[in-house]
């Protein structure tokens, strides 16, 4: 196997096995910090050994076994061990790794641990992105628009709090699930969004591993809470968004906007499943939550055979309904885009400009302004807005698209 092939194997192993290894070690040692450090050391060992020894037949098993040994070595160096650590050390270095099927279930437990309400919401998201999604600290920092050092400290404090508070590593009891699930959904939505438009400079612009993982875990949550409307809504939203994945990036690596996509390339099966979930929630006759409304908006978009057939009146009505639940600046920005289609760019630009104070550091705000200014023929102002959007954008495909649109200005 050539050097590039081995590097690809290591990259694939990190994508596929990181959360499994973390989950396995967390179950065994009861300590996220030990699990993360040992997993990182195992992958570092793979980078060192696999080019010389070859990729093992079972990369996940090799990584789990290596990580276990690294964790045991660390614990042996420490003078004090709690009962959980002592119990873990009863197992020998030669114990075989757990079957991957069992570890799949452990990942769901890992999510509930990372999303415990004792942690602040942003901390839950960051910790899950690190422990379950396998994102690096710089990638997570970009997703939260904070400094890398601050994000590293946030994750370190979160792990310490879980250990000090003895937060249990388990799926909550049935009576506790509804109260706990909203935080988990928020985390899964963020994981999905990081895959939908990846922020890492050295990553693919669309990370299917993250979107697929977010969908898989949301399906697991739905199996636990089949009657929860927001779980169904988030799953529908993810499916309707994922259905457009292959049509979203051009061969040259540039983002293709919704209006320019080849709708024949959309995944019809995912769209059908997403539409079915939306219809089921409408038929339930229960007032929808945020994710259900977002899913309904996506259902309207994906129902149109051509962008010219889009029912913008319905989309605006749904955004008005959403704004009553969530009047955040980002919701109002997206609402303004629908306003532009119905009432024109001048009216929409006035709505957008009112959001400047809250969204000055958000690239999509400047991209929306640039487009609205372009549509009014205000080329110089549009160019300046595109420049700001390009400066702030972290996704390579989005940057390429914004750059082309800017350079097309007269």
Automatic annotation (TrEMBL):
Task: Cite the SUPFAM superfamilies for this sequence.
Answer: Sigma2 domain of RNA polymerase sigma factors, Sigma3 and sigma4 domains of RNA polymerase sigma factors, TPR-like
Name-wise, this protein is RNA polymerase ECF family sigma subunit
GO biological process terms held by the UniProt record: DNA-templated transcription initiation
The record's listing under Pfam families reads: DUF6596 (PF20239), Sigma70_r2 (PF04542), Sigma70_r4_2 (PF08281)
Record-annotated DUF6596 domain positions:
180-280
Every copy of the RNA polymerase sigma factor 70 region 4 type domain together lies at 111-162
Keywords on record: Sigma factor, Transcription, Transcription regulation
The yes or no answer to whether the keyword Calcium is present is: no
Q: Which PANTHER family match?
A: BLL6612 PROTEIN (PTHR47756:SF2), BLL6612 PROTEIN-RELATED (PTHR47756)
- GO molecular-function terms, A-Z: DNA binding; sigma factor activity
Ranges for domain RNA polymerase sigma-70 region: 20-80
Q: Which InterPro entries does the UniProt record give? A: DUF6596, RNA_pol_sigma70_r2, RNA_pol_sigma70_r4_t2, RNA_pol_sigma_r2, RNA_pol_sigma_r3/r4-like, TPR-like_helical_dom_sf, WH-like_DNA-bd_sf
Give the family, as the similarity comment puts it: Belongs to the sigma-70 factor family. ECF subfamily.
């Amino acid at each position: 196997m050539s050097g590039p092939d081995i590097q690809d194997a290591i990259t694939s192993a990190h994508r596929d096995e990181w959360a499994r290894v973390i989950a396995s070690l967390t179950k065994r040692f009861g300590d996220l910090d030990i699990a993360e450090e040992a997993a990182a050391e195992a992958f570092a060992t793979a980078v060192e050994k696999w080019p010389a020894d070859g990729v093992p037949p079972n990369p996940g098993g090799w990584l789990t076994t290596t990580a276990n040994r690294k964790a045991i070595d660390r614990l042996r160096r420490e003078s004090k061990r709690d009962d959980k650590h002592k119990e873990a050390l009863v197992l020998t270095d030669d114990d075989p790794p757990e079957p991957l099927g069992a570890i799949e279930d452990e990942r769901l437990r890992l999510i509930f641990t990372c999303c415990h309400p004792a942690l602040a919401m942003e901390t839950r998201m960051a910790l899950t992105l690190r422990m379950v999604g396998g994102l690096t600290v710089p990638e997570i920092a970009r997703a939260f628009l904070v400094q890398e050092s601050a994000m590293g400290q946030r994750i370190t404090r979160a792990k310490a709090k879980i250990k000090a508070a003895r937060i249990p590593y388990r799926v909550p009891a049935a009576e506790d699930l509804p109260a706990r699930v909203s935080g988990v959904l928020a985390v899964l939505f963020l994981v999905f969004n990081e895959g939908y438009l990846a922020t890492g400079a050295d990553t693919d612009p669309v990370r299917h591993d993250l979107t697929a993982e977010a969908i898989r875990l949301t399906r697991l949550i739905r199996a636990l809470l089949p009657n929860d409307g927001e779980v169904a809504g988030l799953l529908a939203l993810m499916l309707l968004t994922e259905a457009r994945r292959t049509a979203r990036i051009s061969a040259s690596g540039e983002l293709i906007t919704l209006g320019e996509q080849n709708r024949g390339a959309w995944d019809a099966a995912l769209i059908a499943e997403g539409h079915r979930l939306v219809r089921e929630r409408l038929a339930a006759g229960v007032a929808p939550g945020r994710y259900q409304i977002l899913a309904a908006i996506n259902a309207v978009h994906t129902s149109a055979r051509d962008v010219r057939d889009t029912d913008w009146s319905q989309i605006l009505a749904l955004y008005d309904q959403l704004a009553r639940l969530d009047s955040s600046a980002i919701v109002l920005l997206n609402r303004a885009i629908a306003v532009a289609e119905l009432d024109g760019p001048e009216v929409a630009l006035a709505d957008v400009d009112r959001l400047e104070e809250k969204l000055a550091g958000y690239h999509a705000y400047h991209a929306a302004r640039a487009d609205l200014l372009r549509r009014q023929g205000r080329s110089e102002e549009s160019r300046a807005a595109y420049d700001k959007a390009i400066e702030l954008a972290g996704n390579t495909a989005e940057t390429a698209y914004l750059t082309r649109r800017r350079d097309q200005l007269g």
